[in-house]
């Protein structure tokens, strides 16, 4: 089911100050996709999710789920949480420690007074889907973090909701388990015909899981797009920086050619990916570390987009070296193959491809 959010506003007052948790949020979440709200802590992600679920009352705006308006200030509509037919998975899982796996998963059906035989059947089907068949009698406390996560998912799915919402569901797992569980979750979700709204502050999680990412900042949605659009074609400095590691360089637009935008920066004159800015505009250049491939030596001639520098630091991180290259007045971060032959102090140069020089607003 599609979800529509229009003009949503929610302000809190804390110690006499107004906190704009949601500040005119407009959003369409298409049916049957994985849609992620990504942003730093405190930007309003949980508040937005809680408004959609009905656990928080907004100040203004409208929320529709499918064809039904579930909340509207102007039309004075409020559909309570239990009638919105949603499933929710929280950061803490909120599974009940005193109950076994079966009872945890059966709970939503029991509270809907579904007949016992049907409950048994549906719980069995859901547990088998999340690969917990045979765990029915296991006390919830005797499960690993990953298994608890799957119980929480099963409980959210058992009533067959059309929409499932996740609030940072993997943040309590250690790094390795988080990666495994993320893959598992993606495979579960792709098998379901369901709209998933996923909240996280973890950019890798957002990139790996989502069909669409909406980046939030200070109560507003800044940019929306598929993971590659957000990573490679961000429009703002904030998004370019938040979604991945980035070298951000101040620049000024000096020329527009048919297929490129030319800027002047402390790295020299650079031919960049075409961007819609007027000449003279101050912009920010975003160079991803993985696009910088330095070679030993000094560049011959003065070809465009060739940047000289000196290796300042080199750190071995297992699958790569991370290096800082001093270029003019800047230190640029780059990732190098582990078998490269550079040392700190080496003079290097590298070429940046125009379509890998992204220009974003200052
Ligand atoms: P996120 O989930 O992105 O970390 P939240 O939606 O939890 O952010 O919070 C957004 C902002 O609203 C934060 O500044 C937070 O402190 C504030 N906030 C959230 N809930 C309340 C509340 N009940 N009372 C006061 N301030 C709140
Ligand atoms: Mg939160």
Q: What labels describe this entry?
A:
single chain; 362 residues; alpha+beta; Rossmann fold; OB fold (Dihydrolipoamide Acetyltransferase, E2P); 5-stranded antiparallel sheet; binds adenosine-5'-diphosphate; binds magnesium ion
Write the topology of this structure.
Layout (H helix, E strand, L loop, with lengths): L2 E12 L2 E13 L4 E5 L6 H9 L6 E6 L2 E5 L4 E2 L7 E4 L11 H11 L4 H14 L15 H13 L5 E5 L7 H17 L3 E6 L2 H7 L2 E6 L2 E6 L1 H6 L4 H7 L3 E10 L3 E6 L2 E6 L8 E6 L7 E2 L9 E11 L4 E7 L2 E7 L10 E5 L6 E4 L1
Parallel strand pairs: 3-9, 3-10, 7-8, 8-9
Antiparallel strand pairs: 1-2, 1-4, 4-5, 5-6, 10-11, 12-13, 12-15, 13-14, 15-21, 16-20, 17-18, 17-20, 18-19
Magnesium ion binds next to helix 1.
Characterization of this structure:
- By secondary structure, this protein is an alpha+beta fold.
- The protein has 2 domains: 3-238, 3-Layer(aba) Sandwich (Rossmann fold), CATH 3.40.50.300; 245-361, Beta Barrel (OB fold (Dihydrolipoamide Acetyltransferase, E2P)).
- The protein contains 8 helices and 21 strands.
- The strands form 4 sheets. Strands 7-8-9-3-10-11 form a 6-stranded mixed β-sheet, with helices on both faces. A 5-stranded antiparallel β-sheet has the order 2-1-4-5-6, with helices on one face. It has a 5-stranded antiparallel β-sheet with strand order 14-13-12-15-21.
- β1 and β2 (17-29) form a beta hairpin.
- α2 crosses α3 and α2 runs parallel beside α4 (145-157).
- The chain is globular.
- 37% of the residues are buried.
- Bound molecules: adenosine-5'-diphosphate and magnesium ion.
- Magnesium ion (MG) is lined by residues 45-46.
